[in-house]
Amino acid sequence: MLDPRDSLELSLGFNNPEQSPGPLDAAAASQLASQAGELVLVLDPDGTILDVAAGRRELGEVRQWIGRAWVDTVTVESRPKVEEMLSGSRRSGWRQINHQLGDSGLPMRYRLLSLGSGGFLAIGRDLSATAALQQRLLQVQQSLERDHMRLRQAEARYRMLFDRSGEAMVIAEAGSGRVREINPPAAALVGALPSSAKAVTGLFAAEDRDTIVAFLGAVTAGALVVPLRVRLAGDGREVTVTASAFRQEGASFHLLRIGDGSRRGAPDTDQRLLDMLEQMPDAFVVTDAELRIVSANTAFAELAQATSMAQLRGRQLAELLGRPGIDLDLILGQLAEHPTVRNVATILFGVDGGQEEVEVSAARGGSGGEGFGFCIRPVGRRLRDLPPVERDLPRSVEQLTELVGRMPLKSIVRESTDLIERLCIEAALAYTSDNRASAAEILGLSRQSLYSKLHRHGLGNLSGAED
User: Which end of the chain is more exposed for a tag (fewer CB within 10 A), N or C?
Assistant: First the structure.
């Protein structure tokens, strides 16, 4: 909308303009016209530009317009406006005209004044700043519309998942405990929502409400809590409740999942199984497909020297188990071909820097490989408690190949060298009827070297007389 202050027509003119201010000379009229706008064009009756005055030096290119028709300096969509102004059909009022100036456009707003000589004076005001502001406003509006559309799509997806889920779910405010959302399975489970169920505690029996409050408080504090067994307020049916906390728009909420024991089969049996795994002396850990720790029992937390499961949840198992790039890769490679892996010897590193020799058995989770389960048994303490025994060398190639995955390659090569050396010495002694001088000769060794190797491998009776 045109600001009334931008008008060149005075609502209250001079009483006697012929005397005050009186006739103006050409210089004064030119200066007055140049001050009225950033760009002033002097036109002949046919619309040819006779002279140009610009209020900014960066508009110096407009000097090239002198001698050209005004209509030839504007863009295609602005030509009808210029022709209307020159013909007199739309001479009054301001018109927006876009000039083609070099490679860019120059938006202007013009007012055409008639001169006594029959020509015209086109007074223009630059709209570049206004156009840039409008462009920014348009971009902000488009960005807001895109964000609003994404939010609506996310809300629609959330609503569809929430309503169509087969699990009974309730969303409640963490501070007030007021129920904000309840999906159809939850509504069918609790029946008609009573007036007392405006608070989430009203969904459950009176004797369990204090337990629910304490349970939700522990969830808000981030403690590791086990599913809770409580009774519903309506029919007293026993259900299993799990909860998690989340924040939205600066407020905290609880997402409660309610499982109906009568319809889910044998939750008591499942709970007993979870309790037994928690009390097992062997460490159990469950990971997702990327080997991030999802859950573990107390034995694993103790073995990893962690103070709580919160310190382990979400951490990469590769940071704690096995030599980097070796043991876990070997286990995963075996799991890609077989459903389970048993008794892989490796090392478990604690979060505080300690380490423990362990044996690992593992299994894939589900047909799609949604995750992995690991059973970890410490063997270092057991090996330290065994009495020291003399280590026997492998006696065959099959025994050597069984060492793959249990020992580094350098150790296996060293074992292979010792095995071959011992077998050759035994063969030489048998060929020479235990004549050590002849055995040393056919082996290409000195007697002293042969005696040293006999002593190292524990072959022959070294306390007897020399051959």
Answer: N
